[in-house]
TrEMBL record:
Belongs to the class-I aminoacyl-tRNA synthetase family. This is Tryptophan--tRNA ligase, mitochondrial. The gene is LOC108080684. It is found in: Mitochondrion matrix. It comes from the Eukaryota. The chain holds residues 75 to 403 of 676 of the full protein. Catalyzes the attachment of tryptophan to tRNA(Trp) in a two-step reaction: tryptophan is first activated by ATP to form Trp-AMP and then transferred to the acceptor end of tRNA(Trp).
Length: 329
């Protein structure tokens, strides 16, 4: 009954790592290019729920916008904008906050984890998933690509949509989480392949950033933890380190795992790492160049983001006008 609409939010954390790219942003670009209706929102209002540095945040918003554009998010096909530019997000957040309960928010795992990291827990951190629901519902999104750790937040958004529809009349679709579950989309830490690659990893050598120089990428892959067998095979269970490299190699070249492994039969791990590094560098080169290109043209980016915000605002205002009408506001 509802037209298919994809909503993705991403925090402006600065540059992305290879895991974010292969597991999240590239799939969004694929949806966009398959003619899905895709909205990508840089969720800066979410970023202030933890202690932050204002000049750094502003810079990170630009770096994130440049990175998304460089990865192929196309403002002519998708809606790309910064959350705080569309006031309706904060306003709808307030309205939705009366449709759920404190115990329900208190038991969400992300709140429990993050609230442990700060002495005085900000109210914003607590309400965070309500704002996330507002983001999704303002655009009547039907599908939300997320990592597994966000599943409970999507369930909260579903609960808020059901509660709203029940009280005030059928207005919102119940969104579905799209969880990228394939082994292939999971990129592991280069230093500890029992964990996923993550920006919160204390060891920067474990993570490949899209903005890393070719030399740095080669160094990181050269030092990637593998095992004591020198041939190349794909056995994620027994040989997670080597298999992670094979997987990354296959993802960036578009070759199957089998063809990657077949071509590597004569190589030992050291030589193979050089080949993987070349393939990763080759794939990321145009992205890195595009990031730099966009960052040197800030006014163009500001313009693109404002056009995106204008598109988003029109939908958001329509939704919120209807909501206020139904609530007697
Ligand atoms: P991080 O773990 O670096 O903090 P986030 O939790 O912000 O990353 O995730 C942002 C998006 O990137 C999510 O959709 C998540 O599933 C995806 N993602 C994060 N790390 C990886 C990874 N190592 N492999 C594949 N996808 C990932
Ligand atoms: Na995370």
């Amino acid at each position: 009954k509802w037209p298919r609409k994809i909503f993705s939010g991403i925090q402006p954390t600065g540059s992305l790592h290879l895991g974010n790219y292969l597991g999240a942003v590239r799939p969004w670009v694929q949806l966009q290019n398959a003619n899905d209706d895709v909205t990508v929102c840089i969720v800066d209002l979410h970023s202030i729920t933890m202690p932050h540095n204002p000049p750094q945040l502003r810079e990170n918003i630009f770096v994130m916008a440049a990175t998304l554009l460089a990865c192929g998010i196309d403002p002519a096909k998708s809606t790309l904008f910064v959350q705080s530019a569309v006031r309706e997000h904060a306003e709808f957040n307030w309205i939705l906050s009366s449709l759920t309960t404190m115990p329900r928010l208190a038991q969400l795992p992300q709140f429990r984890e993050k609230s442990r990291l700060v002495k005085d827990v900000p109210l914003g951190l607590y309400v965070y998933p309500v704002l996330q629901a507002a983001d999704i519902m303002l655009y009547k999104a039907t599908h939300v690509p997320v990592g597994e750790d966000q599943l409970q937040h999507i369930q909260l958004a579903q609960h808020l949509a059901r509660t709203y529809n029940g009280r005030y009349g059928e207005t919102f679709p119940i969104c579905h989480a799209i969880i990228e579950e394939s082994e292939a989309s999971r990129v592991l830490s280069l230093r500890d392949p029992s964990k996923k690659m993550s920006k919160s990893d204390g060891n920067p050598k474990a993570t490949i950033n899209l903005a890393d120089s070719p030399d740095l990428i080669a160094q990181k892959i050269k030092k990637a933890v593998t095992d004591f067998t020198s041939d190349i095979s794909y056995h994620p269970g027994q040989r997670p380190g080597v298999s992670n490299l094979v997987n990354i190699h296959s993802q960036v070249t578009g070759q199957t795992i089998k063809s990657v492994v077949d071509e590597a039969t004569t190589l030992d791990t050291a030589k193979y790492k050089e080949r993987v590094a070349e393939a990763v560098v080759e794939h990321l080169r145009p992205i890195r160049e595009q990031i730099e290109h966009h960052l040197t043209r800030r006014n163009e980016m500001i313009y693109l983001l404002e056009m995106g915000a204008e598109k988003a605002r029109q939908q958001a205002q329509r939704t919120l006008d209807d909501v206020k009408q139904r609530l007697g506001l």
